[in-house]
Amino acid sequence: MSVLVNLIVMLGMLIVVPAGLRLLDPVRLAPVRRIWPLFAVPGAVALWLPRGDAATALAVVFAFGTLLPAAQAVRRLAATRSVAPAEVAVLTALVTPSVAGLALVAERAGHELFGFTLPILALTVPHFHFAGFAAALVAGLVCGRADGPLGRFAALSVPIGTLGVLAGYFIDDWAELAGALVLTAGMWAVALVTWRDVRGPEHDRWTRALLAVSAAVLVATMLLALSWAVGEAADLPHPSLTWMAATHGLGNALGFALCSVLAWRRIGDMETIKDMKESAV
Question: Has the keyword Hydrolase been applied to this entry (predicted)?
Answer without folding.
Answer: no
